[in-house]
Amino acid sequence: MADVSTKMAGKAKKFRGKKFRVAIIGCGGIAQTHLKAYQSIPEVEIVAGVDILPERLDVMHDTWGVPREALFTDWKEMLARIKPDAVDVCTPNGVHCAPVVDACNAGCHAMVEKPMAMNPAECEKMIEAAKRNNVKLAVGFQHRYRPQTQLLVEARDDGRFGKIMFIKCQALRRRGIPNWGVFGQKALQGGGPMIDIGVHVLEAAYYFLGSPRPVAASGNTWTYIGNDRKKLNVRSQWPNWDYKTYTVEDLAIGQIRFDNGAILQIEASFAAHIKENSILNFSAMGEKAGCAWTEAEIYTDENNTMFNLTPAYIPPDEWEKWFIAKLQNWVDGCRKGTLLAAPGEAGLAVQKMLDGIYRSAEAGREVVID
């Protein structure tokens, strides 16, 4: 470990006083959020963009000032010609692994959007490439930087909860099937709401739990709205999705068992008959106290009385700041050799849980997480 740290420290020296040259691979919607965040990180220079759609490359030039000669449809050509210090991969899930591995092999650091890849095998390939080439690999888990998350993690570290026994996660939409991109195509995404939005609350809850080792998963999935043309007539916030190519689940329910005895349950939906339009939250039960994530509340007993503890003030919960924080952490890790809050290994652990839920749904029984 000391040897690796020494090597990274040596690599970081070359960035001292220089701009950190980042190339964007995949210039669609989420990339625009990343680009806005980079405006608050002055040490970063966006030096190239890669996308298969010309209109997205036009945005990179017209909005973000990337020269036409630094815009590509092939990331391998970009790596060879531009030689960036790092890449930020914002492609669909099925195109996460290959550009990360190629970038690492070219000596570039990498940030990859969530989920890390399509399956654990791809994650392991990406981690191995980063280690072999002595570069930093981070996964875009921005919810770790929310003030609510930090408050609850600090309370956990202080022993407020004692042993955490159970945690329930919800990432639910009443009728929120994406009507853009390839979110409904399993071959390109790996799954539906569980891998797309369930991953957000799953990774935040796992981080809060202290990242114990998952050992088994059980799950079920159902598709009953997204592939039904008649449901397009129901008034909803995102109408007219492509029902013809819809091959993912509408609703997924999963359970994870950990080596410390804790249980995590998760519900995720693009379409479900619930009261609220959307829910993104987790709640936990520990021996000494419980909590709710979004409310940042802690439920406990004090002075022989049951108490609900609500913070008088926490910083505003602004998603733009989460993105700045996650990208700044990655940039600092690459330039200064500091620790990554969400390294590739964290992405692999979350991917194993997602994969376990899907494998269990297909097998109709609980499956082991290796």
Question: How would you explain this protein's 3D organization?
Answer:
There is one protein chain. 35% of the residues lie in helices and 24% in strands. It is of the alpha/beta class and 370 residues long. It has a 9-stranded mixed β-sheet with strand order 14-13-12-11-7-10-9-8-15. A 6-stranded parallel β-sheet has the order 3-2-1-4-5-6, sandwiched between helices. Strand 11 and strand 12 form a beta hairpin.
Quick recap:
The chain is an alpha/beta fold.
Structure class:
alpha/beta
Helix content: 25-40%
Total number of helical segments?
Answer: 11
**Uncertain runs with pLDDT below 50, 5 residues or more?**
1-13
Shape: globular
**Mind summarizing the main beta sheet?**
9 strands, mixed
List the helices and strands and how they pair.
Blueprint: H1 2-12, E1 20-25, H2 29-38, E2 44-50, H3 54-62, E3 71-72, H4 75-82, E4 86-89, H5 97-105, E5 109-113, H6 120-132, E6 137-140, H7 147-157, E7 164-173, H8 186-189, H9 193-209, E8 214-222, E9 251-258, E10 263-269, E11 278-286, E12 289-292, E13 297-302, E14 305-309, H10 319-336, H11 344-363, E15 367-368
Parallel strand pairs: 1-2, 1-4, 2-3, 4-5, 5-6, 7-10
Antiparallel strand pairs: 7-11, 8-9, 8-15, 9-10, 11-12, 12-13, 13-14
Helix pairs in contact: 2-10, 5-6, 6-11, 7-9, 9-11
From the structure above, extract its key features.
single chain; 370 residues; alpha/beta; 9-stranded mixed β-sheet; 6-stranded parallel β-sheet; 11 helices; globular; disordered N terminus
